[in-house]
Amino acid sequence: MKKIIFLSILGFLIIGGVAGYFFVRHYLTHEGVPVTVEIPKGTSPKQIAEILKSKGVIKSTIVFRVWVKMSGADKILRSGTFDLNKDISSIKAIWHLVNDSGTPTYRVTILEGWRLEEIADELFKQGILTEKETFLNEAKRIKAEGFLFPSTYKLPKNMPPLEVLRVMYDEYEKNILPIINTDENTINLNEQEIVTLASIVEREAVYNDERPKIAAVYLNRLKIGKRLEADPTVQYALGYNENEQRHWKKGLTYTDLKFDSPYNTYRYAGLPPAPIASPGANSVKAVLNPTPDFEALYFVADNTGRHIFSTTYHQHLETIKAIRGK
Questions:
Q1: Contact at 8 Å (CB) between 253 and 243?
Q2: CB crowding 256-271: b at 16 or more within 10 Å, else e
Q3: What range does the domain containing 136 cover?
Q4: Model confidence at 134, in pLDDT bands (50, 70, 90)?
Q5: Mean of pLDDT values over 235-263
Q6: Are 297 and 228 in contact (CB under 8 A)?
C-alpha cells in the first residue's frame, strides 16, 4: 500500500515537473528580436507550427499543436503577415494568430524635437499616411503639437490620420504623463507649460547633461519676468524656410528676431502659447529637475554643440566675442 502511495506521489511530481517545465519554457520565456511571419491562406495548424518554428518564434511544434487543439483555435487561426517576436510562448503565438489582423506593419521613427510638419513628412514618406494635409489639420484642431511621443512605431500603410494621432498620443500618456504626474513637480507649471518649456529645451540641447542647465536658465528668466529669448521659438514662428529647405531656419537675422508672433519669445515675455515640437522624456525630466542653485541667465553655443553659461549679460557678451570674434 505504501509503495502504491509512494509511486502515485512520485508520478504526480514527475507530471507536475514536466508541466512546469513546459509552462516556463513555452509561456514565460524571454522574448527575442522582432520577426515578420507570412502565413499563406489555407495553411494547416501543422504547417503554421512548422513556419513559426523555422522563424524561431516557437521552440516546439508539438507544444504549439497541442495548445491549438486544447484551445479550439485550429479553426480560427488567421492567415496574413504578422509582426511577432522570436522565442515567445506557443500560447502567445496562438493569441496573435487569432487576434491580430494579419496586416503588415512598417517601422517609422519619429525623432525628438520634430514639429508636426516634420512628423507628417516622415509618416507620408513611409506610406503610413496617404496625404499630409488631413493629418496636419486634425493635429492642429486637437492641438497635438508637443503631445505626440517621439519613438519608433510599427504602423500599417494607409492608416487613418486620427488613428495615427491616437497611437502617438497614447505613447505620450504612457511615457510622459507619469513623469509629469509625480510629487517631485515643484516648479509651479501645469502640464502644457511643462511640455512647452521641454519642447524648447529639446530644440536647444544636444547633450543630455546640459538639459537641466538649459531648463534652469529658462526657469530663472521666467521667475524674474525676463523674456526667454529662445531662438527655437523664432524658428518655429517663421515656419518652413525655402532657401534652406528646412523647417528650422538656421541663420537667424535681427529682422527674424523682430518677427511678430506670440511664439517669438524675443518680443513677448513668458512661455509661448503652446509647445513648438515633441520633446523626449529627458527634456521633460530636465524641466522638472533643473540643475539646483544654478543662477545662469544666459547661454551660447560653442563650436562643439555644447553651451557656455553666464550669470551676467557682460559675461555673456565676452563669451560670444571669444567664440565668434567681434
A1: no
A2: beeeebebbbbbbeeb
A3: 105-175
A4: very high
A5: 94
A6: no
